[in-house]
Fold this protein.
Amino acid sequence: MTSPHPGNGTVLVLGGTGKTGSRITRLLEASSVPFLAASRSGAGDNGVKFDWMDRATWDLPFGAASPDAPITAVWLIGAPILEMAPLARDFIDLAREKGVRRFVFLSASSVECGGPVHGQVHQYLKELGDAGQIEWAVMRPTWFSENFAETPGHLYTIKAEGKVYSATGDGKVPFVSAEDIAACAVKALTDPEPLNSDLVILGPELLSYADVAAIISSVTGKKVVHENLTQEQLEQRFATFLPPDYSKMLALMDVAIANGSEDRTNDAVLTFTGQQPKPFRETAELSKAAWV
């Protein structure tokens, strides 16, 4: 069960201007693979409007693709709400009706197939794949190295206060670069042979948030420290810019890290892409201008 080579079709990248999407589109462009970068604004040369909360926009990418290169693969990221699975299932069904054969979904290392939120979409893709109706892959990265420079919360507190806030305690995380996630995603989207499985994407080293703060201090020359919070304190911080239920979920994920949920590494990036995953310090060196 294989798809046409991507040269015969267009890749639709949802969240095409985001942390992973922008990197995926750069790699696709470098490989001369046709793509559309979907976002709420639809800005950019290859941009197209798409909004999870406005179903009227869901058809737009399929009309924007060239008739000579219809959309055959989709990079799928869910809406930032806890009830995202029904929306994702409906869009997957729409895309299948439009001729899409391959779906690559962004989930998380901590979410198993059949688990909550992203795990429900993972399960749906697997069921369709097992029935021979689609080709699929689920990317399950751990926490992104770039979160400290490209996520407003961490970026602001590092720059303004010299602090990284979390509820992770001394727990360690194999932080992974969005560049490595994008490389895995592009291979899953474009390889002639479908993955038809999930891929847990981890970085090459285990670091606590205190370790991260120390590395940022080292590359910037400014003092940055980790301040550990309780779950409730972190929820309150998140709730200033996120819905309460989503804030609670994120805070609980930090507590899980404190309890060892991310204390593991693997060689998935090297095995799948042939390239070594980037250590956090390398990402920090590239990002240091954002923190000073």
Summary: Residues 144-175+203-263+279-292 form a domain with the UDP-galactose 4-epimerase; domain 1 fold (CATH 3.90.25.10). Residues 244-258 form the longest helix (15 residues). The chain has two domains: 6-141, 144-175+203-263+279-292. The chain is about 40% helix and 15% strand.
